[in-house]
Recover the amino acids of this structure.
């Protein structure tokens, strides 16, 4: 049975059903529904909900909970996501799992609360210090929010690494029917890393692993190379014969899909690559494609994802960038840009 | 008489000679082992010379981010209510960068024990001014001595915590064998309060940092007894089930 839910609520409920029993977070628009929902829901399932004094404290509590073997998470938006970075770096360094959602709003500093995609660099290229990455999933629908959240908890444990759900105000605030996952059980005593006191055995410590490893550099490299090889996720739509391939994630991918359908109806061969994992970036999606151009579409002023597209396609074709921020593009804007680019590309021949 | 070392103090500590951290680690290990809590203890360790502790202290632990040990301890305790959970922090960690986490764990009366090592300086980073640095005390960032007009008065956290609904509050000193025995009793009482479910317990320990005070270990002890204690009086300040 499907339930009508907001993206933020689907995230919260899916986390509960994935066995998450610890949430600590601080209110910020547009993610506050997560706190509101979990303040009611966590106690129902015997979990812990804490409205923390700050994001710095919240992520540190998550660090403690993860060290105790629990499935734990927090969520925030832009300014608060910046404060989470300290803890994320520590958790990654200690090789513990956790899930963090950033519901992107637009802008730097305080920014504004309307939708945006300007935290791409921060989420994908480490907001925190040091040699680590977080696995980043970008949902483009309420259903996918629920599905990726469940996957995120599993992946975080498999790789012993934080996983980020990079949402945006649109996906998090929209309501849609969603098929929720079945309730799963997580045994916090089971993980090898779970602290519960040393009992009669040997003690465990969670710390920045490098001090205790001889081959730290190579180890970290190998860990992330494996993730880059094995964990790419994306959706390709009508890319095989495409003259131009759009590349977009999250809310922008929905606008691009509509533009693509509309352009196809008019006989233009347009395709779409929708990255689902932003780290690792789905470079395999670009294999064998030879369109006349790529068009990266994102809601940021500086073009944060565009250079990843350029790297992924090896510049086999020109990469154009369509940007928006305070001024958002619509489906017809994207279509118009497609027309311009194909016109220009024709002219170039 | 052969001195028996607690099992948790598995190796020679890495602190400077005469450092109070070594004493604090030792009595903490004794308290945990004498009460059988070592088997279910988990520590959140602060950043500072405290960070050397996990190397030689065989108790389950997490190295917390600088200042956030209380918050990490909260995450641990809420998930593992039957464990004896403590935060172990210096004065820069607990009172400068981590004052917010320190206060809020206390305000929520979280069932954790905070062990606060007050040596009046940032030991690990080379002896800069800490919130607890005494008036007039020379440090590497107060070369003329701490000027209260510009930097505020030394922070007596006990005065602030005393007004809260918490379970246990004490300040001991690591400056002599009788004082060390008393500090150990305070620690035991703090863990007892945690186990009884009364809430938050906090034990401060006046601790020598001979290296950054530029004193011999024995002069550093004398300095605590003769000078530091005037600003930071020792004793038990709250005991029992909070504000009963
Ligand atoms: C975010 C951050 N800022 C600064 C530091 C550098 N740092 C390490 S320890 C420390 C001060 C520790 O002093 P204190 O808590 O008094 O402990 P002590 O070394 O005296 O025992 C500082 C500032 C850090 N590790 N992290
Ligand atoms: S610097 Fe001070 S606090 Fe740090 S180990 Fe040396 S004596 Fe102890």
């Amino acid at each position: 049975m499907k339930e009508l839910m907001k993206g933020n609520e689907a995230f919260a409920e899916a986390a509960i059903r994935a066995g998450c029993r610890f949430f600590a977070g601080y209110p910020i628009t547009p993610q506050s529904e997560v706190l509101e929902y979990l303040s009611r829901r966590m106690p129902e399932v015997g979990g812990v909900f804490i409205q923390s004094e700050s994001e710095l404290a919240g992520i540190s509590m998550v660090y403690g909970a993860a060290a105790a073997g629990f499935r734990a998470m927090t969520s925030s938006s832009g300014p608060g996501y910046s404060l989470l970075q300290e803890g994320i770096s520590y958790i990654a360094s200690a090789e513990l799992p956790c899930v963090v959602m950033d519901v992107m709003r637009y802008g730097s500093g305080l920014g504004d609360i309307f939708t945006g995609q300007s935290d791409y660099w921060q989420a994908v290229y480490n907001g925190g210090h040091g040699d680590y990455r977080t696995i980043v999933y970008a949902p483009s629908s309420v259903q996918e929010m629920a599905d990726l959240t469940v996957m995120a908890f599993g992946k975080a444990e498999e790789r012993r690494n934080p996983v980020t759900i990079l949402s945006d105000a649109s996906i998090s605030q929209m309501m849609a029917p969603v098929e929720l996952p079945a309730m799963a059980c997580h045994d916090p005593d089971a993980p090898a890393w779970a602290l519960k006191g040393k009992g009669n055995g040997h003690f465990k410590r969670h710390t920045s692993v490098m001090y205790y490893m001889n081959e730290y550099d190579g180890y970290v490299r190998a860990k992330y190379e494996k993730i880059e090889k094995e964990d790419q996720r994306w959706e390709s739509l009508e890319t095989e014969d495409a003259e131009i391939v759009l590349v977009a994630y999250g809310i922008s991918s929905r606008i691009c899909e509509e533009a693509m359908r509309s352009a196809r109806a008019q006989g233009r061969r347009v395709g779409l690559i929708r990255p689902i994992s932003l780290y690792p970036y789905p470079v395999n999606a670009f294999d064998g494609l030879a369109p006349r151009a790529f068009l990266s579409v994102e809601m940021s002023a500086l073009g944060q994802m565009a250079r990843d597209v350029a790297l992924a396609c090896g510049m086999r074709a020109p990469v154009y960038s369509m940007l928006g921020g305070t001024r958002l593009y619509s489906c017809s804007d994207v279509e118009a840009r497609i027309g311009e680019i194909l016109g220009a590309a024709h002219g170039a021949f | 008489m052969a001195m028996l070392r607690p099992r948790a103090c598995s190796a020679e500590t890495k602190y400077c000679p005469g450092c109070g951290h070594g004493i604090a680690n030792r009595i903490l290990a004794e308290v945990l082992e004498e009460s059988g809590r070592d088997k279910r203890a988990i520590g959140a360790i602060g950043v500072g010379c405290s960070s050397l502790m996990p190397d030689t202290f065989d108790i389950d632990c997490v190295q917390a981010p600088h200042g956030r040990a209380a918050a990490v301890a909260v995450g641990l305790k809420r998930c593992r209510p039957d464990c004896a959970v403590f935060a172990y922090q210096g004065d820069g960690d607990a009172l400068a960068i981590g004052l917010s986490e320190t206060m809020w764990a206390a305000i929520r009366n979280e069932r954790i024990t905070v062990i606060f090592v007050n040596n009046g300086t940032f030991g690990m980073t080379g002896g800069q001014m800490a919130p607890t640095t005494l008036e007039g005390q020379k440090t590497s960032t107060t070369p003329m001595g701490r000027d209260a007009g510009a930097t505020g008065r030394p922070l007596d956290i006990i005065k602030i915590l005393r007004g809260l609904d918490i379970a246990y509050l004490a300040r001991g000193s690591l400056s002599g064998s009788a004082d060390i025995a008393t500090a150990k009793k305070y620690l035991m009482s703090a863990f007892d309060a945690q186990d009884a479910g009364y809430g938050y317990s906090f034990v401060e320990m006046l601790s020598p940092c001979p290296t950054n005070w530029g004193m011999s270990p024995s002069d550093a002890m004398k300095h605590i007894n003769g000078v530091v204690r005037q600003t930071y009086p020792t004793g038990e300040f709250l005991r029992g089930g909070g504000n009963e």
User: Anything to note?
Assistant: The interface with chain B takes residues 21-22, 24, 48, 50, 52-54, 56-58, 60-70, 72, 86-87, 90, 94, 188, 195-200, 202-208 of chain A (CB under 8 Å). Residues B 15-16, 19, 21, 49, 119, 123-124, 209-212 surround iron/sulfur cluster (ligand 2) (CB under 6 Å).
